[in-house]
Design a protein that fits this description.
CATH architecture of the largest domain: 2-Layer Sandwich
CATH topology of the largest domain: Nucleotidyltransferase, domain 5
Radius of gyration: 20 Å
Number of helices: 11
Number of strands: 11
Number of domains: 2
Order of helices and strands: EEEHHEHEHEEEEHHHHEHEHH
Length: about 350
């Protein structure tokens, strides 16, 4: 994809429990971004409460869009197209963002681009803050590890918007496993940050938790690892021993990071990738970032911490490349689109 035309995209993201809006220029330069998090609201439930999430989106969506426009010193007349997350995600949450985007499109006449949430995570690695030095963009062919609360998979990107899925999770995604193990250990939601914090003073070699071996070497499975932690916890409690929370957390985290790193490096070698991209909520994990950044074989692109979790900037970035390539969805968009898109 060459000779990309300049364009500003305003995007809306409401796939789960963050209400977000952002404006991206030319697919990379972030002009403004607003994220209204519901994390504190859902922490009391130990996970996201879908009905509560959708109601909170209704309250937040208009102020979030207005604040983004104010922050950017732009109006809707300065925008070339709109983008919105069309799935996957919580249906009640998605419909709030989609209806807001549809209303703006009908009211302004701007084209509307439907973006797959997973594709958005991948394009978070193209983004930089406007006014700062421009970093090198990822080079194709690119091995993309997408690791989040609901998805863990490897995709080979040979060009913009062109994906070959090599493997995905057969059961629990990595982020989901973090949440479930955190609950087993009595750590607060969300599990990722809690496990990371507990691991800081833990012995990652104390417990030999399993690394699943699968027929497809690029598929993932974390259900067995989660169960191994459960059995270890039950055994310790059975013998009236205090739980070594830090060592359990560190050993679990090491197992997850080991699997993600080794499979990605192996795939990059086999499929001739020039560079590696790691994206999704779990890409914020410090141990995962360090192991990828410490290896010298491949240049690795990992988004800034603020772009790892759900945000609208990534939807705007992906929307830009769909807009300039002509892959623009109409107003009647599938709420749960297939993936990967090609």
């Amino acid at each position: 994809m060459s000779d990309l035309k300049p364009a500003r995209i305003l995007a809306i993201e409401t796939s789960c429990d963050e209400t977000a809006c952002a404006i991206i220029e030319n697919g990379r330069a972030l002009l403004a971004s607003t994220v209204a998090s519901q994390m504190d609201i859902h922490a009391r439930y130990g996970g996201v409460f879908p009905e509560v999430a959708s109601r909170q989106h209704v309250l937040s969506i208009i102020p979030v869009v207005e604040q983004t426009l104010v922050q950017s010193n732009l109006t809707l007349k300065d925008v070339d197209a709109l983008a919105v997350t069309r799935g996957p995600g919580l249906a009640g949450s998605l419909v709030v963002g989609m209806n807001m985007a549809k209303g703006l499109a009908l009211g302004t006449g701007l084209p509307l681009i439907g973006v797959n949430h997973l594709e958005g995570h991948i394009y978070s690695s193209w983004i930089y803050n406007a006014g700062e030095s421009v970093p090198a963009e990822p080079k194709f062919p690119l091995m993309a590890l997408l690791v989040s609360g609901g998805h863990t998979e490897l995709n080979l990107m040979t060009d913009h918007l062109t994906y070959q899925r090599l493997g995905s999770t057969l059961d629990d995604a990595a982020g989901e496993a973090f949440d479930k193990v955190a609950r087993l250990l009595g750590l607060p939601f969300p599990g990722g940050p809690s496990i990371q914090k507990a691991s800081e003073n833990g012995n990652a070699k104390r417990f030999k938790f399993p690394r699943a071996r699968l027929d497809n070497p690029y598929d993932f499975s974390f259900s067995g690892l989660k169960t191994a932690v459960l059995y270890e916890v039950q055994e310790l409690k059975k013998n009236s021993k205090p739980l070594p929370i830090e060592d359990l957390a560190a050993s679990f985290q090491a197992a997850v990071v080991d699997v993600l790193f080794n499979k990605t490096i192996k795939a990059a070698h086999e499929f001739g990738a020039k560079e590696i991209l790691v994206a999704g909520g779990v890409s914020a994990n410090r141990a995962l970032r360090e192991v990828f950044q410490s290896q010298k074989e491949f240049k690795v692109h990992i988004p800034a911490f603020s772009l790892c979790t759900d945000n609208a900037a990534m939807i705007a970035a992906a929307g830009y490349y769909r807009f300039v390539s002509g892959h623009v969805s109409g107003l009647e968009m599938d709420v749960q689109p297939t993936w990967p898109l090609s």
